[in-house]
Amino acid sequence: MGKLYVDTQAQTSVDSLRQELDRAERLVDDLADDGPGTIELLRRLDQIDEGLGSLASRGADVRVEETRFETLLGDVRRHRRRIARLGGDAIQKDRAERQPDESRWWWFLDQAVVEERRKAWLRRLGLVVAFAALLTAAWLGYQRFLAPPPEVRQAYQHIESGKAAVDEGDVAAAVSEFELARELTPNDPEPWIWGGVLCEVTVGCSAPERYFEKAEELYATRFDFLLNRGRVYLESGRQDEAVADVDKAIELNPDSGWGYYLRAGVNARDGDYDAALDDLQHAADLAERNGESRLHGMAVTQRAQLLRMHPPDTLK
Fold first, then answer.
1. Under a CB-based contact definition with an 8 Å cutoff, are residues 296 and 280 in contact?
2. Distance between CA 306 and CA 298 in Å, rounded?
């Protein structure tokens, strides 16, 4: 059996690669407060990536080095916010000069962090739309600091797992999680709404209305149903459907601030921050007029957060 030939230059290059890995690992461990080390780190990641590709094409055994590189990249991901903060404008400047391929994602950490924060805020904006009067007795028990039954705790876990699966694009897993939640708490409308929304995008599921009809039965009014279905559409990223439901809800009850609060979430996700700010202000005004202190506080808080994220001079 013949031996795999690896030239001496490749062997020397492996040593150089290991030194680059050593330096990069130290840079991750010792990120300086002044930031210059971040740019050096990103440049070294490029060199390591190029070195691994070159050596592998020449037949060198770099499995150990590849493992080290993957571990290093994992550390970079964990420290992405710190790296983005320390690198600041220097990352943008160097990226503009180098024009790196998107596969070298470390050059786009600052953009990724901004997007993560935007999505987190938008997720909170959608998730906080809840109505104490519409919750089941078990959820009211939570608010009164009473321990809910085991099946309610389990159902809540399945609902959260279902939402996580939706975020990851795993519709089949999400369908299964919400089905388990319905079995545990059949009088909770939330998993019924999710069942209908997911049915609309699931091959072989042709009757989403049966889920929606059951959910609407569990709400006090059609306004409540439309608003909550609009919220679920918003959470699942289906903007057009969310808009349709929230507009119908506002038409049914224009004096309620909840519809405008939810529409602010839709507008913010669309990037229409001016409209979102207007809706949040209108929601706060209506809540104050109607004596809904909880909604008023939420609308004022979300409006302040949106203004911090998108100051007036950056608004469209």
1. no
2. 12
**Three-class DSSP labels, the chain:** CCCCCCCHHHHHHHHHHHHHHHHHHHHHHCCCCCCHHHHHHHHHHHHHHHHHHHHHHCCCCCHHHHHHHHHHHHHHHHCHHHHHHHHCHHHHHHHHHHCCCCCCHHHHHHHHHHHHHHHHHHHHHHHCCCCHHHCCHHHHHHHCCCCCCHHHHHHHHHHHHHHHHHHCCCHHHHHHHHHHHHHHCCCCHHHHHHHHHHHCCCCCCCCHHHHHHHHHHHCCCHHHHHHHHHHHHHHCCCHHHHHHHHHHHHHHCCCCHHHHHHHHHHHHHCCCHHHHHHHHHHHHHHHHHHCCHHHHHHHHHHHHHHHHHCCHHHCC
In one-letter notation, the amino acid at residue 109 is: L
Alpha-carbon distances, residue 107 vs 55, 76, 186, 263, 287 (angstroms)? 23, 11, 48, 35, 45
Q: What is the pLDDT along the chain (316 residues), one digit of tens a residue?
A: 444 444 445 457 888 899 999 999 988 887 755 556 888 999 999 999 999 988 888 888 888 989 999 999 988 888 888 888 888 888 888 888 889 888 899 999 888 887 777 666 555 554 444 333 333 333 344 433 445 678 888 888 899 889 888 887 888 899 999 999 999 999 999 999 999 999 998 878 888 999 999 999 999 999 999 999 998 998 888 888 989 999 999 999 999 999 999 898 888 878 888 898 999 999 999 999 999 888 898 889 888 888 887 766 544 4
The pair of structure tokens assigned to 266 is 């839709």
Per-residue tokens: 277: 């700010």
C-alpha to C-alpha distance for 312 and 316, rounded to whole angstroms: 9
